[in-house]
Amino acid sequence: MTPPFRPSPSSTAPAPRGCGGERCASGRDAWPLHHVRHNDVFCRLCSSCVLLYHPASFCSACLLLLHTDAAAAAAAAAQDPHFDPAVAPPGPTAECSNCGLFVAHVACIPDLVSFVCPPCAAEAEGRPFTYAPAARRVMDERAARILLVAARLAHESIGRAAAAAREEAERRVQEAAVARKRSREMLDAAFRALEEEARAAKIKEEEEAAREAKNKKEKPAAAQPPKKKTPKSSESSRDRDKMLKFNAMQQPALAFAAAAAAAASSMPLSTPLSTPTPREDKKFNGHSSR
Predict the structure, then answer these.
(1) Fewest beta carbons within 10 Å, which of 48, 201, 206, 228?
(2) Which residues make beta-bridge pairs with 2?
(3) Closest CA to 157 of 38, 26, 12
(4) DSSP characters for 85-138?
(5) What's the distance, CA 84 to chain centroid?
(6) What is the C-alpha to C-alpha distance for residues 145 and 65, in angstroms, rounded to an integer?
(7) Contacts for 276 with CB less than 8 Å, ≥ 6 apart
(8) In what ranges is there compositional bias, type Low complexity (predicted)?
(9) 34 and 50 in contact (C-beta within 8 Å)?
(10) Would the pTM count as exceeding 0.85?
(11) From CA 149, how far away is CA 81, in angstroms rounded?
(12) Are 57 and 66 in contact (CB under 8 A)?
């Protein structure tokens, strides 16, 4: 059976040890380390560095959280004075006279004018300062309070980071929806433009086709050469053909008669002309009829 909390292969790599805070004096073996978002960067800090990175969020004397909203603090205290052990009751505070960053309750410091926060006092003495030294291994009330306040501050930091990430994600989702809508509108407009262009091209083609057809109808047909008509035979032409044929048939007889006349003229007058025999006459008439 697979164990429920089996580490993934990526988590088997050794994690960086020690606090990631700047000039941390808690040592490399500081424990525990809190996940904090500081200056838009996620880092792992010890409890002391978490407190040092949030100087105005707690009292540097009693090490209790301060309410950022006085009205909410007063309402919570009126309902239950002991509602949260890590939060101090509402009251006036004073700033450090040296750095002006760290604050403390007026009731927790002896003098308001000469109040100096512990980090500034340690820096004036030339020694590193930490709220959770590595040599202290005993979990007393002060150490428990430091751990609790640091955990609360880290939790609030991660909560703000999660809220910011959620807000950023929602904003990007809205931007994506707007961009999607705009892209869809642009695509619809492009499709409509293409349809209008295709329709206009079709109408133009139809108009050109109609114009060409109209021009063809209005343009006179090209004059074709007249066909040669064969003359029809009339009565006169038929008679003429008969006369030509008859003349052609009479030409041999005329030629024969001319030859006979020439022969007769060359003969002496005393010689009588021979009379054609009936057979020759019949033969001549038959040749003429042809």
Answers:
(1) 228
(2) none
(3) 38
(4) TTBPPP--EEE-TTTS--EEEGGG-S-STT---HHHHHHHHT----SS-TT---
(5) 54
(6) 10
(7) 284
(8) 252-277
(9) yes
(10) no
(11) 18
(12) yes
